[in-house]
Every structure is written in C-alpha cells, then in structure tokens.
Amino acid sequence: MSSKTLGIVGGMGPLATAMLFEKVATLTRVSKDQDHIRVLIDSNPKIPDRTAHIVAGGEDPRPELTATATHLEAMGADFLIMPCNTAHYFYEDITKGLTIPFLHMVNETAAYIGTDYPDTRNVGVLATEGTCKAGVYTKALTANGLTALTPEPAMQQHVTDLIYGIKANRDIPIDGFMEAVTALKAKGATCFVLGCTELSVAQKLYGFSGPFVDPLTVIAEAAIRFAGKHSISSGE
C-alpha cells in the first residue's frame, strides 16, 4: 500500500531527531522494508536556540525553522512533524507559507492525555524554560480540560540542567530532575509530560519510570496514521 512521505524538521537536537526517526520505524506495522514510510529528514543544528529567543531575546529561530520546513516540502514531503516542543511556539509562523499539513506535536500530546488519562486533571510539565514561559503546553492542555503545573524556579533549573546536558552529550545525574517531579506531585500532578525532546532521550538513557507521557511517541504514532499506515500498538 502506498503512503504519504513524511518530512521531519529536525536538528533540535540531532539526537532527539534520530530518536523520532527510530520511533517511526519501530512503531510502524510492517512485514518488510518496502512497507515502511518514506522519511525525509533535515537535521538542521543551525536553528538558533528557541528558549534563548523566548526568554532573553536571543537570535530569532523563525527564519531557519521556516527555511527547513520549506526545504522539506520542496524535497517532496507530503506532511511534516517537528521533534522540538519549544519550537511549536512558532508554529503559526512556520506553517503560514506551507501548502502541506504540519502535525502539531504539542496539541497531539495534550489530546492524547485528555483521552488516555481520563482520571488526570493536573499535568506536570517538564520542559524548557522557554516552553513554560510561553505557555506552549498550558494552552494546549487547557483546551483539553486539563491544568498545567510547572516547576518553581529552583526545580526548573534541575530540569534545564538535564536538558542541556543531553544536548551537550554530557552524563548528568537525574537526582535533581526527579526532585522536580516529586515537587510537582506534591502540587497535585498525577501525570507528567516530557515536554522537551531531550527529556524523551533522557528517559531512554536513564530508564526512569513513572506516569510520563512522551510526545515523541505520540507524534510518531500520529505520523504513522497520517501516512496511511498502522501502528504496532493499534488493534487494526
């Protein structure tokens, strides 16, 4: 069966991009190579830091984000996804010049929590400072009847240290990160979104467990469905 070609707006960071590609490949129900989705990846590490722009007025990432998405469309992608939660703050700017669909990872994740965690009301958001400050998940979760809880500044620093440690290929202890999780539990969070794709990588590297929702997995499965394929987790 033919399927749509997927384009990945990547490089934020490269390891998270590689993990997303791996998830698309491993979660697609296939019997041979030819059953897989065709995937085009532009892993562009030159995209300026999204949090630095949101929090401190650093270099604007929108020109590189837009150019990367446009490049993938020109290469023949039928639709796009992007493994960077913070970059979804710029979603409207990135998509306004495109003629192909762009699946929104944050909205897909919030909708997934609303459906698959019916007893959850308070969601702990573990993400970059930029994602938290911009309310990227707050907006999406609120639209699904959920409340977003974010860490206090000292706890946020622990989350930030782990995120940027992963970006730098450094071995960072996760004690501080888990302390931030415990603090959010005390505030009433019963489910946690790994709202930075480096945290998705960290979960694989460190094997920490708990009621964590991984947006990389959510968007990989959404992309598989949109491409016209079936996920191994589906009953179809």
Q: Number of DSSP strands?
A: 7
Tally of DSSP helical segments: 11
Biggest sheet features:
4 strands, parallel
Fraction of helical residues: 40-55%
Weakly predicted, low-confidence segments? none
End-to-end C-alpha gap: 15 Å
Strand adjacency order, main sheet: 5-4-6-7
Q: Tell me the β content.
A: 5-15%
Q: Tell me, what's the shape?
A: globular
What structural category characterises the helix and strand content?
alpha/beta
Question: Radius of gyration in whole Å, from Cα?
Answer: 17 Å
Helix/strand order, N-terminal first: EHEHHEHHEHHEHHEHEH
**What's the rounded overall pLDDT mean?**
96
Topology:
Blueprint: E1 6-10, H1 14-27, E2 39-43, H2 50-56, H3 62-75, E3 79-81, H4 91-95, H5 105-116, E4 122-126, H6 129-134, H7 136-143, E5 147-149, H8 153-167, H9 175-186, E6 191-194, H10 197-206, E7 212-213, H11 215-226
Parallel strand pairs: 1-2, 1-3, 4-5, 4-6, 6-7
Helix pairs in contact: 1-11, 5-7, 5-11, 8-9, 8-10
